[in-house]
Amino acid sequence: MPSPTVPAPESRARAALLRLACAALVWVLGLAFAPLAHAFAPPALEGPVTDNARVLSAADKARIGAKLLTFKAQSGHEVAVLTVSTLGGETVEDFSYKTARAWGLGAKGADDGVLLLVATGERKIRIETGKGVGGELTDVESARIIREYIGPELKGGRYAQGIEAGVDAILAKLSGAPAPPRPSGGGGGGGLFVLAFVVFFIALFAILVVLAIKRGGGGGGGGGGGGYYYDGGSSYSGGSDFSSGGGGSDFGGGGGDFGGGGASGDY
Amino acid sequence: MNHATTTWSLPRALSFLLFVVGLLGVVSLPGCQSYDQLIEKDELCGQRWADYEAQLQRRYDLVPNLVNVVKGSAKHEAETLTKVTEARASATQIKLTGDDFTDPAKMAAFQKAQEGLKGSLSRLLVANEQYPDLKANQSFRDLQVQLEGTENRILRSREQYNEAVKQYNSELKKIKGQAINKATGKPFKERVYFTASAESQAAPKVSF
After folding, report:
1. Residues of B in contact with A262 (CB under 8 A)
2. A173-184, pLDDT tens digit by residue?
3. Of A123, A99, A124, A125, nearest to A113 (Cα)?
4. Between A and B, how many residue pairs show a Cβ–Cβ distance under 8 A?
5. Beta strand pairing status for A78-84 and A258-266?
6. Taking CB atoms and an 8 Å limit, are B153 and A91 in contact across chains?
7. pTM higher than 0.90, yes or no?
8. What is the Cα A16 distance to its own chain's centre?
9. In this predicted complex, what is the ipTM?
10. Which sign, positive or negative, has the C-alpha torsion B165, B169, B171, B172?
11. Which of A208, A254, A231 is nearest to A107 (CA)?
12. What 8-state DSSP symbol labels residue B77?
């Protein structure tokens, strides 16, 4: 009976609903495509060392991370290491700049953060320096560290050595210490290098001997079991050390600003 | 009769006055905040511009060193070198102040002069790829690294200037911002953005 009057409001309501649905669809699509338009989302900060490319062993990561945390405690400088397997179409400069800013490395105002980025897919290295470290670690110095310390090692696939040598060189620059010796591949001063190598091996041998004597003395009864237990203990202490810095909100987020300083290189 | 003509008693007038003053206060407080925001954001733009100019100065300072090093090794590049020197001279001539930042034509002229220098420098570096002894020259390599670093810093400081301008302009376009701008005699004007030119899109790479 009321049929002639009812359909009008109903269809109007339906139209409104349809319009709403369309708007919602556009909105959802917009959300879905927004990341495509902007494309870049910085990787999550995991601590001083974020090894997304999985080129470092747990021990390497813990050792380098502990070094960076100690350095931060001593000098205030926040130096982070990031490895990625791909830059996702970004230039290495854009990737490191955006990541370093998003992570807020270094203290606000001091802007004393540094990011060492290695992209294994594109075979690119970049040292991104905060606005406040340009004087201690210049672009030329950064380029030299990439060329002489990191590049040759990464070329040989020795990621841990290359990254650690690079970190050592960066920390030395930032603290005004003399440059550390280059790792194996460097070439350069031949005689001195061989000498350093020999000295290193003698020292290593001596340390091994001392360790062996110590372990033999301390182990007493069950030598093998004691050794195994000792190893577990040391790796545990390493782990706790790392998590104390990485787990806390201590690293990153300081709001240090970056201005495109640093240098890039290939390997 | 009694209801229509309300006679104003003293306490009533006082409380009305109080109400008006209170209302004015409530209305003008956010206005003041908005004014302060505009000032603050304008200031930040100025700061970013100064950062940008500092990076441009780095580029200017690198040019004489670069010219000297290249002069020694690449005899055939006299013309390229002259062009670089000329481009530097014309780039340093234009200085923007005050209202220039709100003038698209002046911004464009400034940008064009800077890009002229950038272009001539990158042509110089490309030309120098042909000189092996220059490529092996350590001070040339260092200058090249410095120049690359400077170009990247210039790019970032331009981006950061644009970010600051975006904040400032959008504050100015808000209703509150517009109202306060009108009320104070329009001291604020929209700043002009840097536009990405074809040249600045291409990465400042030296090799072909």
Report:
1. 149, 152
2. 988 888 888 876
3. A99
4. 39
5. unpaired
6. no
7. no
8. 52
9. 0.75
10. positive
11. A254
12. G
